[in-house]
Write a structure and sequence with these properties.
Helicase, Ruva Protein, domain 3, N-terminal domain of MutM-like DNA repair proteins, 2 domains, 4-stranded antiparallel sheet, 10 strands, alpha+beta, 26% helix
Length: 275
């Protein structure tokens, strides 16, 4: 599933190709993907201009010239491409936005899990899927003290808590493994047992790892490609995830792989401490 770095990479690629351009036609080939009435969705979009593209958690927000926003979630396999009007549609293309400049924005999705809908821009924060989201990792008000208080409301396992999206957004399986390794914390640790120092290292790791992943264009292990059809490169910088039986670069212990709530989880048994 595309996580924060992949979503941000898609946005960074789309912005110069889309912002300022006007929708002239919309084709929907899989109506279940649209949470609004599909006919109303199409009619509203005609002659509207894209004025901004931004992110909240793993959601892409296309702000439009009528003070509405298109909320889009890529789910497992969703991708956006910007193509010339005469270019063939990729396989599994489900929504196409035709633009006045002779190009088209194509949403294609092998599994058809992606969803999109229109809401008033000033009501985005109150949309059902957005309202439940936690802190943005780069928000300056998201301090270690704030983080620690949230962690102490949780029991169970720290990896599960970080994947939940209602503490801090944007972390998926790969990035949680890397963040916990950075912070020397075992994935089975109880969040309520963590200290301010732990929260500080976790937050620092979240920011550093996500920033590097964005810089490297995201992580491509299976199928992620950006809007230009390019793969990400952060997989070349992974310290523990998918590194089973390789040696930890800090203490040369073998990286281990376990299943945690059904998710493949990688960690160093020597330097990641159970709390």
């Amino acid at each position: 599933m595309p996580e924060l770095p992949e979503v941000q990479t898609v946005i960074n690629n789309l912005k110069p190709l889309v912002i300022g351009h006007t929708v002239t036609k919309v084709d929907i080939f899989y109506p279940k993907m649209i949470l609004n009435d599909p006919h109303e969705f199409v009619n509203k979009l005609i002659n509207l201009k894209f004025i901004n593209i931004r992110r909240r958690g793993k959601y892409i927000l296309f702000d439009l010239s009528n003070n509405e926003s298109l909320i889009s979630h890529l789910r497992m396999e969703g991708k956006y491409s910007v193509l010339e009007n005469n270019a063939d549609l990729p396989a599994h293309s489900h929504v196409v936005f035709w633009l006045e400049n002779g190009s088209k924005i194509v949403y294609h999705d092998t599994r058809k899990f992606g969803r999109m809908h229109l809401v008033k821009t000033d009501q985005v924060a109150d949309a059902k899927e957005i309202k439940k989201l936690g802190w943005e990792p780069f928000d300056p008000q998201f301090t270690p003290d704030v983080f620690l208080k949230l962690l102490h409301t949780r029991h169970g396992k720290i990896k599960v808590a970080l994947l939940s999206q209602d503490l801090v957004v944007g972390l998926g399986n790969i990035y949680v493994d890397e963040v916990l390794y950075y912070a020397h914390i075992h994935p089975k640790s109880n969040p309520s047992h963590l200290t301010l120092s732990d929260a500080t290292f976790l937050q620092e790791g979240i920011k550093k790892i996500l920033k590097l992943a964005i810089k490297k264009g995201g992580t491509t292990i299976f199928s992620f490609k950006n809007a230009n059809g390019e793969i990400g490169h952060f997989q070349n910088y992974l310290k523990v995830h998918s590194q089973n039986n390789k040696l930890c670069e800090r203490d040369h212990a073998k990286i281990q792989k376990i299943k945690l709530n059904g998710r493949s989880t990688y960690f160093c048994p020597k330097c990641q401490i159970l709390k």
